[in-house]
Amino acid sequence: xxxxxxxxxxxxxxxxxxxxxxxxxxxxxxxxxxxxxxxxxxxxxxxxxxxxxxxxxxxxxxxxxxxxxxxxxxxxxxxxxxxxxxxxxxxxxxxxxxxxxxxxxxxxxxxxxxxxxxxxxxxxxxxxxxxxxxxxxxxxxxxxxxxxxxxxxxxxxxxxxxxxxxxxxxxxxxxxxxxxxxxxxxxxxxxxxxxxxxxxxxxxxxxxxxxxxxxxxxxxxxxxxxxxxxxxxxxxxxxxxxxxxxxxxxxxxxxxxxxxxxxxxxxxxxxxxxxxxxxxxxxxxxxxxxxxxxxxxxxxxxxxxxxxxxxxxxxxxxxxxxxxxxxxxxxxxxxxxxxxxxxxxxxxxxxxxxxxxxxxxxxxxxxxxxxxxxxxxxxxxxxxxxxxxxxxxxxxxxxxxxxxxxxxxxxxxxxxxxxxxxxxxxxxxxxxxxxxxxxxxxxxxxxxxxxxxxxxxxxxxxxxxxxxxxxxxxxxxxxxxxxx
Length: 484
Ligand SMILES: Cc1cc2nc3c(=O)[nH]c(=O)nc-3n(C[C@H](O)[C@H](O)[C@H](O)COP(=O)(O)OP(=O)(O)OC[C@H]3O[C@@H](n4cnc5c(N)ncnc54)[C@H](O)[C@@H]3O)c2cc1C
Hints:
Layout: E1 10-16, H1 20-31, E2 36-40, E3 53-54, H2 56-64, H3 68-74, E4 76-78, E5 80-84, E6 89-94, E7 105-107, H4 110-123, E8 129-130, E9 133-140, E10 143-149, E11 155-165, H5 172-177, E12 183-184, E13 189-196, E14 208-212, E15 215-221, E16 227-234, H6 243-253, H7 256-259, E17 265-273, E18 276-278, E19 283-284, E20 287-289, E21 295-296, H8 304-324, H9 333-357, H10 362-375, H11 381-389, E22 421-425, E23 437-441, E24 449-451, H12 460-467, H13 477-483
Parallel strand pairs: 1-2, 1-11, 2-8, 5-14, 11-20, 22-23
Antiparallel strand pairs: 3-7, 4-7, 5-6, 9-10, 10-11, 12-18, 13-16, 13-17, 14-15, 15-16, 18-21, 19-20, 22-24
Helix pairs in contact: 1-4, 1-8, 8-9
This protein binds flavin-adenine dinucleotide.
């Protein structure tokens, strides 16, 4: 039997890179019926843990792809996160006040997340073309010609109407387009180890940042018997930590409840440099950058993979509307306009967390710890932090009022289980409602609200432009008179 994979000659969307960002985009497109091809240079999906924390907002989108439930079954429902010094908790931030169907931090290895994404793509009939590396991209009206090297080393060309560069930190797509990736690469390193560490306390299922005089240590349980993740700030040149090193880090930096536990085995360990960079453009003509190709930052706060998945959520429905529903291509410009400012804010945020966590000097550290402990007692601070870390408040509008254009809607409010547009209305469905909309009648709104497939309220102008439909005008006059 010939197992050689056939490379297609053309596609509507070429997705370069089958990491979490690329696979989320590919599943979304496939589910929406958009033709796409996914290539990845690796012969098989990576089996490293890397991103271990999946935020509620990510689960809200992955639910529309039918991936959240199986991931939750495989992961650990983390309470939130905590910051401590060596002896006391300074601040504990549970997610249980977050207004989401998923008020917890899902702890699950990236390899498991990837496996769920791969399985869903396969269920939809997709298959990743592995061992296929993008070499170069040239404009070829009305798209691009992508030259790739296949698993036999042969050069092939795939013509693509649109290209999604989901090819990670050292993105070839970004380089081919000559897009800048300014920012900094601090000398600071981090060491990470996934270990067997029996006896994790049942009331501490959360990543705990311990701020010790010797540096920062993050400890978190992982799914699997006695599995845990240990991350520590480390000086430049530090090698991957051994079992002895991890035990030493726990003894010198860990909180009291961790110090009486011993690492029995190191299953994987590595060190890495933090880069803090945002691409100068997320779009260049028909080509887009998503995930680490577009932005990279400190993993403190567990935001990176989550942000790449949200990039894909933002772009997928726009490509669908343009390719299948006749929307103007200018719709795609909003991808950069919405996602790039979000990435810039995120980098500032993760930079602040890393700076606070890695402050040196005894007096400065003491002052930081006192401030954190005091801040945690201010009403509303814990809830605000939970909203920020969980990514629930990320939106693209000027107003935070519920149901204002650009704000996120709780998926339960609109029964969002698919990648459809939604109309949330106090009245029955209007007769001229486009078929793409799913209706939820609710007295929680005073006027009809259109919600995009990524869970964001669409402006009336956008809905009119895309569908020739005016949600506000669709309401029965008697109710409308009262509402407007
Ligand atoms: C130790 C560590 C811990 C982390 N913890 C967290 C966390 O808790 N939460 C969080 O949100 N994030 C975390 N991150 C960050 C997270 O791992 C990344 O943000 C995430 O993997 C980025 O996903 P991506 O799909 O953009 O890129 P990647 O996962 O890097 O995938 C890119 C893919 O593109 C492929 N590729 C590259 N070049 C080519 C080419 N020329 N042709 C074809 N294919 C190509 C690669 O083989 C790869 O499969 C962590 C990172 C590290 C290092």
